Amino acid sequence: MMRIERTIKYEGDRVRGFGKEIMSVPGCELLQSCIQCGTCSGTCPLSIYMDFPPRQVMALVRADFKNEVLRSRTVWLCASCYACTVECPRQIRITDIMYALKQRAIQEGVYPKRFPIPVLAKEFFEMVRRHGRISEMLLVARLFLKTNWFAAMGSWRLGLGLITTGRFSVRQEHIRRPAELGAMLAAAGKGNGKAKEMP
Amino acid sequence: MKDALKYSYFPGCSLKGLGRSYEQSLLPVMRRLGVELVELDDWNCCGATAYMSVDEAQACVLAARNLAIAEKTGPRDLVTPCSACYLVLNKTKHNMADFPEINQTVQHALKSADLTYSGKVPVRHPLDVLINDVGLDVIKEKVVRPLKGLKVAPYYGCQIVRPYATFDDAWNPTTMDRLLTTLGAEVVPYPLKTKCCGGSLTGTVPEAGLRLTYILLKEAVRRGADVIATVCPLCQFNLDGYHDQIDRRWGPARIPTVYFTQLMGLAFGMTPEELGLKSNFVSMKPLPAESTTV
Amino acid sequence: MNTQNKNGEVRIGFYICHCGMNIAGVVDCPSVAQYIAKLPGVVVSRDYKYMCSDPGQELIRQDIREHKLNRVVVASCSPSLHEHTFRNAVESGGLNPFYFQMVNIREHDSWVHTDRAQATAKARALARAAISRVRFHRALETTRAPINPDVLVVGGGISGIHAATTMANAGKKVFLVEREPSIGGQMAKFDKTFPTLDCAACILTPKMSAVRSHKNITLWTYSEVVKVEGYVGNYTVTVKRKPRYVNEDLCVGCLECIQACVFKEPKFADEFNMGLSKRKPIYIPFTQAVPPVVVIDPERCLQVRTGKCKKTCLEACADRQAIDFTQKEELVEIKVGNIIIATGFKLFDAKRIPQYGYGLYPNVITAIELERFVTSSGPTGGEIVMRDGHHPKSVGFILCVGSRDMKTNRWCSRTCCMHSMKLAQLVREHTDADVTVFYMDIRAPGKGYEEFYDKSLKEGIQFVRGRVAEVTDWAMAPEEEGKLVIRVEDTLAGFVRRVPVDMIVLATGMEPQADSQEVRRLFNMSCGSEGWFLEKHPKLAPVSTFTDGVFIAGCCQGPKDIPDSIAQAGAAAAEAMALIDKGYIEQEPNTAYIVEADCSGCKSCIPLCPYTAISLDDATQKAKINEALCKGCGTCVAACPSGSIRQNLFEDEEIFSEIEGVLSYV
Predict the structure, then answer these.
(1) Model confidence over B33-78: pLDDT tens digits?
(2) Per-residue pLDDT for B135 more than 70?
């Protein structure tokens, strides 16, 4: 049976001030000048996989449709290749806006729960905060555990290959003075003097 | 002249982990050219793309700590081979210079560890150093085994040319092309030289990320290249490590991917073992037998 | 305060204008009037809503008569707006207009301050200063300088041609100077013009012919202006006439010399055909060139470069002997009263956007190159062909190349949408190929332009809204092999598309000419921030510049199409003719004068004058000022060590009393 869906957006669907908030992130003011030309979507290698291509995300952000934007998969599919930023005729820092949206999505806990990318970001964040460096194998292992990603099992050959070529290390790398780093990060974290807790 | 070629060196987490053969080939090659790379003391992870996805202010502080340590060490330029680190460190420098709010937050955080940052240390890429500081003439002198007959597709990836195209053109960079030609190799025209490899999406969202990798490999094979030369550990891993999956999903596109420093090492007469070439998944075929000394 | 001066008793009339709410909204005008009324010498002190209006001016006239005023002060807006108005009112009231002083309490006070009390105090101080000053004013007469009725038009494109013929038809003598060997400009390269699809050559060549045959127009092609001296009504212009090595009066345009040239085959890129064809060192720019005279390229001709050539061209022209290798560059001086600049534009270099592959892929061409293809008198005889000679089966037009982009040119080039749609229609007409236009917006504002857009749609031209991200030749699907692929987000349809085409046409935008900075300095004009010549007012004076007597018309002022260029050319001609027909210009009597008794003949002032108005009188051995040349800049007045140079309207006592007036209030 074909599902008929009704899509209409009312004023109440907008979150007033969201666009302004994003545009107040340093460097993101130029979003005001977007003419919706579509160069960003045209040049983005991943736009064809996104539910809202970059141009549409920019329109939604400017029009305060926060929920639609944060719930989309677009921000997580951005590979930070900066092609859009470099090509945009209005010189809008699109990649930086994507980062701002990612931050807000994580802060508010709005993202598909087992979607690997935000989980990866959070695990990365934690590992660096605690140890100051990343150990790739450990990070991947934690990612598998958190996302229950059975497809990971399909990568056993890759894992084996890494072991045999000596690139598989399960030792946690760390800096000598992790506490110093922790203090610095806390001083930067939202000005509340406490280390940034994971949401 | 000798003294001028001393740099601070920021390896980044990858070069100590999955990308260790990059460092393994970079350091001896630089040494042969009279370039000294002094690893930064107690450097921390730059944050790459992931940290910035969670908290912007902290991400800037993370990167700035390394810049501050570099400043403390001396008036040397900071060389960083990993593309992500290169981008993050440069981006932090720009943000600190352009946005007073960020500058303030970061300086305040650095103070708690007795560090300061004044923006004086330039962050440079090895290609930049090789072409502009060392010079192709000096490199040519060190070539004992020209890579004659080797067809190379030069792959720059995104983050060393975008958004800060400081030492090369953003759309059509040629530093590595020129370097490879100096080594005697034949550079294959490769229009995808700055297209994204998929980054960290290859493992997490393969239908999207890995396909980008596949497209790069397919085109290199189509253009008749024997090997792809790359500058970034993540690009190298993506192009080299997923061939099983690629075969399954879209069909084979096997071509070895190495670091440009490994090719430099081969041209300088070093062995594949020394250069870490044995740790690749897709091995490079041995160089053509007729290799004349210069 | 002394109410006496050497002119007798002063009787001052003071008027403060409300200017609606512009001034009265911030300054308490009645109180200023009351304050001024109490000052010695002030006979009448009024405030009124609109002083510049008829009743306002009538107030002044009436008061002059009834109260026998001999000085008038008005406190209102900027002198650059209404000083003239009030001086006229004073004069028509029977008083010499230079007994008038104006105070600006709008731009200098009410428009820049918000505090009512302080703004009112400032108005009082400024008014008092003027009252103080005006006592020392003297009667002065404006001088008139005659206007040379001849006109110089720089640039022989459609704008220059139209301006020149308009003025020549009105009986004025016109010099038309054009840098290229022929007039016609960019329009000569077009096939058809939008929206009527009129043949460009058919409407342009009669005008070009008219220029040539008009007895009032002196046409100098292959020439450039190198020096301009003087001022409105009296310009002395030096024109450099480049040697074409052909005598214009003798050549009849038979072209046999070209046939006979030692270069058997044409070898050099033909500029008129955008490099799509070749020419010899001796050539005619295009068949309908005006003047229809051959020209020899000095950088390519063997004879000119090396002196060693068989000179078969001379032989071919034996009977007329029009070729003359002894020709040299000539500098000619002319005197004109007005100058019209119509130097046009240059096209954006598409190589600056490597993403579109111009210069890399042979079948990516620019719109002007396509014009040369579709023209029946062009290098392919009207055939639209790809580099391999085949007709394209699919053509893509990319709009806004170089325009509307912060990285290259911010502005919209105004004509490219229409130009591209015209070319799209012509491509359909000539080839039947599939045509797709990739755009951000379609701008079709002129008369008949929206209908033209509709015609394009009705003819089956596809329009895709999306700014093209890149043009590439690597195929991802079988139908893309061997073609150029356009990757673009079709924003209206909502997905990214890869569109394979045979040929791509880039609608490159307009830019100011490369030497626009040198040219503007030559004619004492300004350029706007985008590099186009600056008009006096964007709405009300689009063809005048800040230099009187110099006008601009056409694309050199900003991108525009042919109807607007012609309109501006006509407007500039009208402005020039208005000055000429008046016959004289009135010069402000703010000139400097020398008090001979005090002058010691030290000659310090002479080299300082930017207008070379001062010279040493041989008889008296004292400095002498030519009033006609003096512009009243005040340099010599300030520099004279003995203070023997004074300036009308800016006498020492006038200035000092003004200062005292402000300070005494404080």
Answers:
(1) 999 999 999 999 999 989 999 999 999 999 999 999 999 988 899 9
(2) yes
Q: Would you call C474 and B192 a contact, using CB atoms and an 8 Å cutoff?
A: yes
pTM for the whole thing?
Answer: 0.87
Q: Kindly report the nearest CA distance between residue C483 and chain B, in angstroms.
A: 15
Contact C405 A36 (CB under 8 A): no
Give the tens place of pLDDT for each residue, B178-192. Answer: 999 999 999 999 999
CA distance A182 to chain C (A): 41
Maximum C-alpha span of chain B: 61
How many Cβ pairs closer than 8 A exist between chain A and B? Answer: 184
Cβ neighbours around A164 below 10 Å, total: 11
Task: Judge contact between C538 and C243, C-beta under 8 A.
Answer: no
What type of residue sits at position C434? D
ipTM: 0.89
Identify the chains in contact with B, defined as 3+ C-beta pairs within 8 A. Answer: A, C
C657 within a domain of the structure (yes/no): no
Highest mean pLDDT among A114-118, B19-23, B74-78: B19-23
If asked whether residues C338 and C204 sit together in one domain, one would say: yes
The dotted CATH code for B3-124 is 1.20.1050.140
Overall average pLDDT of the C376-384 stretch? 92
End-to-end Cα spacing for chain A: 40
Tokens of C35: 């304050």
Give, to the nearest 10 degrees, the angle between helix B100-111 and helix B83-98.
110
| pLDDT at position C665 over 70 | no
State yes or no: pLDDT of B1 exceeds 50.
no
Q: Beta-strand (E) ranges in C426-509?
A: 434-439, 462-465, 470-472, 484-490, 495-501, 503-508
- Asked whether the predicted pLDDT for residue B207 surpasses 80, the reply is yes
Query: C34: helix, coil or strand?
Result: helix
Chain A neighbours (≥3 Cβ pairs under 8 A) are B, C
CA C168 to chain centre: 20
- Mean pLDDT over all residues of chain C? 94
C284 close to C293: Cβ distance less than 8 angstroms: yes
Nearest CA in chain A to B57: A188
Distance from CA of A32 to the nearest CA of C (A): 14
Domain with A155, as residue range(s), is 116-188
Question: CATH no. for residue C603?
Answer: 3.30.70.20
pLDDT recorded at residue A198 = 40
Residue C451, pLDDT above cutoff 90: yes
Answer whether A99's CB lies under 8 Å from B229's CB: no
Q: Which helix (H) or strand (E) holds A164?
A: helix A156-164
Distance, C-alpha A16 to centroid of its chain: 23
State the smallest CA–CA distance between residue A57 and chain C in angstroms: 12
Q: Which residues sit opposite C464 in a β-bridge? A: C438
Give the H/E segment covering residue A124: helix A116-131
Q: Which CATH architecture has domain B142-279?
A: 3-Layer(aba) Sandwich (3.40)
Task: Show residues of chain C in contact with A37, CB under 8 Å.
Answer: 440, 466-467, 491
Q: Do B191 and C355 touch (CB under 8 A)?
A: no
Interface with chain B: mutation pick from A22, A157, A163, A167, highest number of B CBs within 10 Å: A167
Q: Report chain B's mean pLDDT, rounded to a whole number.
A: 92
Is A176 inside any structural domain?
A: yes
pLDDT of residue A151: 61
Packing angle between helix B56-73 and helix A94-108, nearest 10 degrees? 120
Nearest CA in chain B to A25: B56
Q: Is C655 domain-assigned?
A: no
* C354 to B192: CB separation less than 8 angstroms, yes or no: no
C-alpha C341: how far from chain center: 6
Each residue's pLDDT tens digit, A9-43 = 999 999 999 999 999 998 899 999 999 999 999 99
Closest by alpha carbon to C293, among C158, C176, C203, C180? C180
